[in-house]
Amino acid sequence: MFSSVLIANRGEIAVRIIRTARRLGLRTIAVHSDADATAPHVKLADMACRIGPAPARDSYLVAERLIAAARESGAEAIHPGYGFLSERADFADACAAAGLVFIGPPASAIRAMGAKDGAKALMAKAGVPVVPGYHGADQDPARLADAAVEIGFPVLIKATAGGGGKGMKKVTDPAGFAEALASAKREAEAAFGDPRVLIERYVTDPRHVEIQVFADAHGNAVHLFERDCSLQRRHQKVIEEAPAPGLSPEMRALMGDTAVKAAKAVGYVGAGTVEFIADGSKGLRPDAFWFMEMNTRLQVEHPVTESITGLDLVELQFRVAAGEKLPFAQGDLAIDGHAVEARLYAEDPERGFLPSTGRLWALKLPVGEGIRVDSGVEEGGEVSPHYDPMIAKIIAHAATRDEALDRLAQALDETLVAGPRTNAPFLAALARHPAFRAGKFDTGFIDRHLDELLPQRGPDPGAVAAATARLVRREQARLSALARARSDEAASPWDVLDAFDLAGPREVGLQVTADGETVTARVRYSAPDLAVSVEGIAAADAAVIEADDAVIAVRHGRQAMVKAKDIEAIDIEHLDEGGIVTAPMHGKVLALAAGPGDPVRKGQTIAVIEAMKMEHALTAPIDGTVAEVAVSVGAQVADGAKIMLIAPVEG
Q1: What pLDDT score does 489 carry?
Q2: Under CATH, which number does the domain 461-484+494-564 receive?
Q3: N or C, which terminus of the chain has less Cβ within 10 Å?
Q4: Are the beta carbons of 13 and 80 closer than 8 angstroms?
Q5: 3-state class of 170 per DSSP?
Q6: 283 DSSP assignment
Q7: Is 516 helix (H, G, I), strand (E, B) or coil?
C-alpha cells in the first residue's frame, strides 16, 4: 500500500475520501482553488496545495497543476473522486507518466467507455444489449435530424463524452429538434470540452437501474448488486436506493452478470458502474433492459451500496490500486436491508430549481439511528456559484424499504439550512409520496407529480411573522434612542414600536419585505410581550437566524428572508411593470436571441444563461418589443442583474 494520496477534488467527495484514507493511515493532501481555501476538505487533510482561481477550468480541471501539487507534496497516489478529471484517460496517463498511482481504472478502459457511441458499439460486440439509436461519427445537424426521424420520436439527444444530465435533451417532435440539438451541443462543449452527441430511442416508462462492479488486476470481477436511480429531474438523479424495488433475484443475477461481462470486455480494474435503462411498463423483465453507459469512477450514490453490503468502496479502491486481490468472491456477498439516498442541493424548487448560492448562516444536518450524512460544507461557509450546489447526501438504512423511507423523510424534516434555498421539503415529499412508496415510478415520475411535490408558492405567513418579530426586537434596540427623541406623530412605524414601552397596548401595521415581496405585518405590543401576525396567521414555531440586515425564519424546511422596508425608498422592482427580465442566478450569458427593436412574444426564449454547467433559458414575460439589452454574450452576471427590458404592446 502506498503511504500518501492527493485528492484531486473538492466538497463532500474529497471529505469522504480523506476520512477513509486517514483511517488506513495514509497521509492526505488536499487541493483547493481560491474559493475553497478554507473549505472543510482543506482543513481535514494533512496538507493542502493551492491550484488556481475559483473557476474549475482554471483549477480543478488543470491536470498539470494537480500533477505539480502531487510532486510538491510528495504524494504517491492520486484519487480523482467523481466529476472533474475522474474520467479523463489523459489524466490517468499523466499520473502514470509522473510515477503516481491513479486510483481508478486503466486509461484504456476509460477511453473505451468514455465516449458513449464507441462504448455502445463495443458492448454490442460483447453481447450486451444496447438501446437502439444513432451512434455515428457524422455530426452534421441534418444527419442527426434524419437519424431522429428514422429512430422515431420521442428521442434523447445525449453528449457522447458526458453524464449527469449535461448535454442531454428529450425531444418529442421534429419541430423542436434543432433548438434542442444546439443547446445539447453547447452544454456538452462547456461541461466536457466535446460537443459530439448521439441520438437514442426514448424508452417508455423507463427505469434507471445501475450495477456496481469491482475488479482487481488479477482477473477477479464481481458485482455489488444494483441501485435504482429512477427518481430524476432534468436527467439528474435526485433519490437513489438499493436494492431496486420489484427486481427479482433472477433478474438481479442476470443484470449483474451482464455488468461484469461489460467490465471484463474492457479490461476493467477498480470501482465502476454499469448503467442500464429498463422498460418498466410491464415490470422489470429479462428481455427489456439495455446498456446505457459505464461510469469509470466512484459514483455519487455509492453510499447506498456501502449500506447494504457493509463494504467501504473507497478502501477497496485503495487496496485494488495498490495491487491487492479482492478479498471476496461473488458468493460471499449478500444484501442487508434497504438504503435510500437523497441529494440535498442548494436550489430553489419554487423558482424552477434554480441554483441558490451564498453564505450558510445556519447548517444543522440530521443524526440518528440508520442515518449517514456525507457533506463538504459547514456553517458560515459559502455555496459557490462556481461548482455543483450540493450541500450534503443524506442516507437512510433500515431493514425494509418503508422503514428506510420513513427514516429519510424524518431526517430531511430535521435538516436546517439558512441562507441558500434548498430542496429538503421537496425531497421529504418524494420520500412520502404514496405512488413512489408503492413502487409505481419511472424516470418521468417527478415531472408528472411536480405540483404535488412542491410547497405552496410564496413566503410562509407564519415564518414571516416569526422573522418579523425578531426583526422588530432588533430594530427596537437599534432605534430606541431615536424613538425616545421623537413624538409619536413624527415617528416612522419602526420608531413608534420603540415608543410602545412608554404607552399601553398598541397595534400597528408594519411593512417588511419577505423574499423581496412587500408584506404588511400586524404588530401588537404590550410590554414586554410582542405578538406578530401576517395574513391573520400568528408567528409560527420556526428556527430564526439573524443574517446581516435580514432575519431568516426556517419552517418545515422552507425559509423566509425578512428585511425592514424603507418606506421612503423607490420601488425599483416595479418601475418597468412586467417588462424587465433579470438573471435568476449567478451565471454566464451564453446567447441572446433578441436585440433592440425586435418584437417578442410572451414565453419566447430571449436569452440563455449557464450556471453550474447547465443551461437556463430566459423567456419574455410579456408580448412587446425589446427596448434595451443590458448585457453581452459572454458576460458574467449576478443574481437579479437586468438582462433585457421589454416594452409592452401598446394598448
Answers
A1: 45
A2: 3.30.700
A3: C
A4: no
A5: strand
A6: B
A7: coil
